[in-house]
Amino acid sequence: MSTLTKLCLLTVALGLPSLFAQTSSSENSQTTHPHPIAIRAALLLDGKSDAPIRNAVILIEGEKITAVGSHLAIPAGATILDLGAATLLPGLIDVHTHLLSEMDGTNLSLQDVEMLRIVATESTAERALHGAKLAREDLEAGITTVRDVGNSGVNGDIALRDAINRGWLPGPRIVASHRGLDSRPRRSRRPVWAPHSRSPIHH
Q1: What is the DSSP track for 98-151?
Q2: Is 196 part of any domain?
Q3: CA-CA distance, 171 to 139, in Å (whole number)?
């Protein structure tokens, strides 16, 4: 396994709660004493200091990281993931995403045209499924939280967020903006229609 792969896996591990944000009450009752997991690696960047933590150990119980440090004692019976010379870091946060759309970015002057094409030709359901693909790619790249800032549809970003929170599919925590607001001058007083919506949003 390459060092890059190990790094991605561990960044995802540090964001484990985003994979399983909600569990049923029956599952919770059965995991009173979750099996501990210990992750070991040469270095860890914790974001609190300039110096990396050497001989890092991360202890996980259930969905929670319980301890992070150097040479921590590993509980008896814990599953140990030894990543050797890998460097670990907390999950990354992307504060500007549009998970329900994808453009190649080779011609920035055509971004608005491409966005209009996506909105006009793809249903909310199709874009939500596309969003599930992109959400997984983000998580596998080490991004464990995103702020999704608009998708010009009817609640596709909300549906994707809720599906991830329910554990239906892997993805980062999503802070969703919901439907976009129109920027027309106030004097127009015209309703704003979101694509495929059944009612206008007045401003």
Answers
A1: -TT-----S-GGGHHHHHHHHHHHS-HHHHHHHHHHHHHHHHHTTEEEEEE---
A2: no
A3: 5
> Which of 88, 117, 150 is the C-terminal boundary of a domain?
88
> What is the identity of the amino acid at 58?
I
CATH of the domain at 32: 2.30.40
Whether the full predicted model's pTM is greater than 0.85, yes or no, is: no
The answer to whether 56 touches 63, Cβ cutoff 8 Å, is no
| Residue 44: inside a domain | yes
Q: Hey, which bits of the chain come out as E strands? A: 36-44, 53-61, 64-70, 79-82, 87-88, 92-97, 143-148, 173-176
The tens digit of pLDDT for each residue in 40-87 reads 999 999 888 889 999 999 999 988 999 999 999 999 999 999 999 999
Strand 173-176's sheet: what is its strand order?
Answer: 92-97, 143-148, 173-176
